[in-house]
Trk system potassium uptake protein
Amino acid sequence: MIDFRPIAAILGVLLAILGTTMMIPALVDVVTGQGDYIVYAASAVITAFVGLSLWLAGRTSEVEKLDLRQAFVLTTASWGLLSAFAAIPFMWADTALTFTDAYFEAMSGLTTTGATVISGLDHRPAGVLIWRAFLHWYGGVGIIVLAMALLPMLRIGGMQLFRAESSDKSEKVLPRAAQLAKGIVGTYVLLTVACAFTYAFCGMSVFDAVAHAMATISTGGFSTHDASIGYFHSPAIEYAAIFFMLSGSLPFVLYVRVLAGDFSRLIANTEVRLFLSLVILFALVSFVEQVRGNIAHGEAAMRHAVFNVVTLMSTTGFIAVDYTDWGPPTDVLYFIVMFLGACTGSTAGGMKSFRIAILGSALAQHLRRIIYPNGVFPVRYGGKPIGDDVVASVLSFAFLYLATFLVIGIVVNALGFDLITSFSASITALANVGPGLGPVIGPSQNFAGLPDHVIWLLSFAMLLGRLELFTVLVLFLPSFWRR
Amino acid sequence: MIDFRPIAAILGVLLAILGTTMMIPALVDVVTGQGDYIVYAASAVITAFVGLSLWLAGRTSEVEKLDLRQAFVLTTASWGLLSAFAAIPFMWADTALTFTDAYFEAMSGLTTTGATVISGLDHRPAGVLIWRAFLHWYGGVGIIVLAMALLPMLRIGGMQLFRAESSDKSEKVLPRAAQLAKGIVGTYVLLTVACAFTYAFCGMSVFDAVAHAMATISTGGFSTHDASIGYFHSPAIEYAAIFFMLSGSLPFVLYVRVLAGDFSRLIANTEVRLFLSLVILFALVSFVEQVRGNIAHGEAAMRHAVFNVVTLMSTTGFIAVDYTDWGPPTDVLYFIVMFLGACTGSTAGGMKSFRIAILGSALAQHLRRIIYPNGVFPVRYGGKPIGDDVVASVLSFAFLYLATFLVIGIVVNALGFDLITSFSASITALANVGPGLGPVIGPSQNFAGLPDHVIWLLSFAMLLGRLELFTVLVLFLPSFWRR
Ligand SMILES: [K+]
Ligand SMILES: [K+]
């Protein structure tokens, strides 16, 4: 049997933090005189109370001895349970969502997806807007710490490749997470502050600047306006967003090293190079297509090309310009870009660049082995040969990712939606991008038009994608619980 | 440099056989008094002449010492070149196709795809109809011999698993192929004759029975009527088609063993079991969906369910009833079924059941390894552990199969077709099924509505799918030609 007490203790601490944070939207509503601050205060009390109870129930256990199986349960339970409590204000505040919709909105925030069921954002009280921003922000830093401290040890989809980056190979999860978290959280706060200042400097109100900075660095993409970044009609803000979305897409451990003076590591990193090369390549294609299709020209075409590729590949999901009518092949290009995603250990979703690199090398090696049956062709990453188990993990992950995408799309389609809606909903949830395509969930629509069972399915898809599939799926294996 | 002489000699023999066979449609046209027998006679002379010249050019070489690289070139060249000559009658006979369309029709025949650009089949001369049937029939037996004799040695997509089935592990290709071919060709002829008799017994004309028997055992699917099997409005014929399409989908080596008295091998075969289980499962789903959707009931619903699942999963592509309006989830189910395909060493296309089994085992093993990092979990097939190289080959194949499907679909979409047309064209060509979906290439339409560049792309897709991707793709590697 799994000892649930350390899990309860940690969930308790996380809930207490979440509850305390609810006082911020309460304060914002008091200051702006909008909304209903009492909702947040009440939610805060409930959340903090449950958190405290859980902590009390589990505190006698040896939390620092958390083992791998407990770590699996903790990870999925964190996102699952925190979303339930983070949903409370969405039900009680003026958004008045059902629990299904509120849970979706909270999960969308904490997984940095940014798909929303709330419309009329421009006229909503500031409290609810800043609450959404905080969910992104917590989700973003949570996923970085998870990806650096936990997933490599859990050997999820080839992430064992990144175990070498830590000197500590022990199975004790918490000490390592705590040590890594410090540097990362510092960088994360620093980048967010820099982003907020830049946005304000470019003309956003202080409130919009703070909320969008939190949505940008977390590559979450919740905006305070229905028109998203397009609301500001400002090339300067779009360029700033491009820069900071890219910042959120790079491995945060590298920032820690750059701050320690080792700048070369950022440039030399295989994944960063591949990611930025793909961004440039796809942006060029999109630029040429816009000019060819007479949609835009010159600086505007280039800006929109880079913005769209970066917003989708970083899986932020901000929208500066509605690209739905650009037609093929731009729409298909954007579809592919969502699959790819950005770098490991960033806040971005998708399959991640390192897996794309390993997939490419594995296929090339396979072809060579067919020609030269007796040759030895190791799969390489960053010039170095990598183990067969990493290759098998990456191939399994890639296959399962595509299969999950297809299954979720098929189920949504079977529930009565058109193919574009079904499959764009599937990938936008799974890759944690946010906006979909098509008449129901396109860039100018939102997810409020979907029935409850689809909303639940997509909430689950966001969780699956954010936790890299296997982390959640192992919980469904009977043998996981048997030991 | 590759020695092309043995390749030329074998291609020459194959062309001579193809040319000689053209006398059959000539004879049929003479007997029926329809069509233009002189077209076939002229095509026969040209084809046989070129074949003889090639044989003369290469005959001095040691054909029996064909090495692996020559085998690769020969395989792709066989289908590519024979399609060009098989296309001649389609240009000159009353079908009067352009070379592009004629090549597509010939490639569609020789790859047992059965997608057609010819309409008004019911009123075409018998010669052109029997010519199409012969292309299927040659393509079908060709692919079985290839899959049993050559692909395992070329280690294509995990096919090395089937090397153990032969006692001869030498790299000499031809002796083994010749030895295997004898038993297989015998079974193939026997099954075709049995199928033709059954069809005639169920009420088809002798001509229709022979043509459809050749299209059934080869899982090709060319019919002599625009309405395909639906033309006959005969449940008996539909049941017969189900039985013989299944016959074409099972591993032909097993028939050889069954004929030698070892019947248990057929029942005990892992791939056969999985394939038949999937057929039953999907047929049940389709049955329930028809009853639920009030489309059909009782025996008719069950017959149509089994027929549709078998025609698509065996990649035959016969049509008994237009299922396009059945809506989700049936249409998506049928889409998946096309991907899966049937057994290795049969005439069917798709990914093949043994790969599905290995994929499933590899994913389960990957999940178990995540839970028990120190456990040993070999991937199993048929209860026996299989090598890491086979698993990596299968995973690479599966990923490349999905990627090729997406790329071809995306290109067709970018050329201006809707998503359903684009992606159904991609999978129906790649899996060698035949009919597509949607307004342009749906079951009641044909491929004549597509522009030339799409037709060429789909011809290439049929070749790629039929030869299991890697066999063709290695030819594009510079290092293949360098040695
Ligand atoms: K996002
Ligand atoms: K077919």
About this structure: Chain B touches chain A through 44 residues (CB under 8 Å). Residues 166-171 of chain B have pLDDT under 50 and may be disordered. The beta strands of chain B are 380-381, 384-385.
